[in-house]
Amino acid sequence: MNKDGKRFPLSLSSVVDRAGKATVRPTHAPKTATQQTAMQNALTHGTTKKQFTTAQAVPPTKIAQQKITPNQPSSPLVSDAVRRAMVARVAQQGVKDQLVLSALEAIPRHLFVQSGLASQAYIDAALPIGHHQTISQPYIVARMTEIMRDGGNLNRVLEIGTGCGYQAAVLSLVAKEVFSIERIKALHELAKNNLRPMRIANIRLHYGDGMLGLPQVAPFDGIIMAAAGMEVPKALLEQLTIGGRLIAPVGGASQVLQLIQRTAKNEWKSSVLERCHFVPLHQGVI
Ligand code: SAH
């Protein structure tokens, strides 16, 4: 039971925060492509509405059974085989956690990008999602999720920077409850639209400044930051459980992935993992 007295799983419509109820479409689409929702993409690609329910960390075999299979003979570039090939490349790059790899295989990444970019959805690259933001590279999504899972069972996790909602969808398959915050209203709405047809029951989307975290639902077993600041906001460190893990890109033009583990009430241990490249973390909401 969560703080609102609701039980998981919840439908997505019941879990988005109140402030985000109105349907606002992104208005500042990039010049290269038209901003579209995943549902529109799905329709364009002949995918029908699909059920997608999971409320807790699910064994890989289960994930394989319940994955969405947007199998369109007319769109070989977004087929299951192409997604499996992407997962194989991510594994080759060193991601070993089978649950994470299965989650990556289960989530149809092409439904999170603009339809004009769907054919590129399974190359290992960040892609524009409008508002000068990007959907993260599959490898880095998998790597950060794997590192977070290394700390043990994940009940409650927090993502800073929902963007189009892709990483939140991946997280929903490895954690019991996923909270994700986005500071750009239009992207918060885009993520809602992208996730709604998938009916993922254990994601809560919030519109707000992720630098403040979500003190009302803290502590979190894991926190993933999808945007890079010069340092990790202190509020987020305070919202980790003891033993909890925060993974964040840190830096400006040159960035590193940093893992911070909370080892005691007033003690955190930090280590640098690898170089990375993320969009910048900004304060406040727009
Ligand atoms: N998680 C996304 C990646 C989104 S890109 C994925 O699955 O691909 C990073 C996102 O972080 C952008 O949408 C940006 O608007 C958001 N962001 C930057 N600073 C933020 C902040 N302080 N609070 C919440 N979101 C923030």
Architecture overview:
This protein has 286 residues and is of the alpha/beta class. The chain is built from 9 helices and 9 strands. It has a 7-stranded mixed β-sheet with strand order 5-4-3-6-7-8-9. A two-stranded antiparallel sheet has the order 1-2. Strand 8 (255-264) and strand 9 form a beta hairpin. Helix 3 runs parallel beside helix 5 and helix 4 packs antiparallel against helix 5 (98-106). It is globular, with a radius of gyration of 17 Å. Residues 1-58 and 64-74 have low confidence and may be disordered. The chain binds S-adenosyl-L-homocysteine. S-adenosyl-L-homocysteine binds next to strand 2, helix 7 and strand 4.
Distance between the termini: 32 Å
Question: Count of helices?
Answer: 9
How does the helix and strand content classify structurally?
alpha/beta
What small-molecule ligands were found?
S-adenosyl-L-homocysteine
Mean pLDDT: 81
Number of strand segments: 9
Spell the H/E element sequence. Answer: HHHHHEEHEHEHEEHEEE
Query: Beta-strand percentage?
Result: 15-25%
**What's the gyration radius in Å?**
17 Å
Low-confidence stretches: 1-58, 64-74
List the helices and strands and how they pair.
Elements: H1 12-15, H2 38-44, H3 60-66, H4 80-92, H5 98-106, E1 127-130, E2 133-135, H6 138-149, E3 156-160, H7 166-171, E4 177-182, H8 185-195, E5 203-207, E6 220-225, H9 234-238, E7 240-251, E8 255-264, E9 267-276
Parallel strand pairs: 3-4, 3-6, 4-5, 6-7
Antiparallel strand pairs: 1-2, 7-8, 8-9
Helix pairs in contact: 3-5, 4-5
Residues 133-136, 160-164, 166-167, 181-184, 187, 209-211, 226-227, 279, 281-282 line the site of S-adenosyl-L-homocysteine.
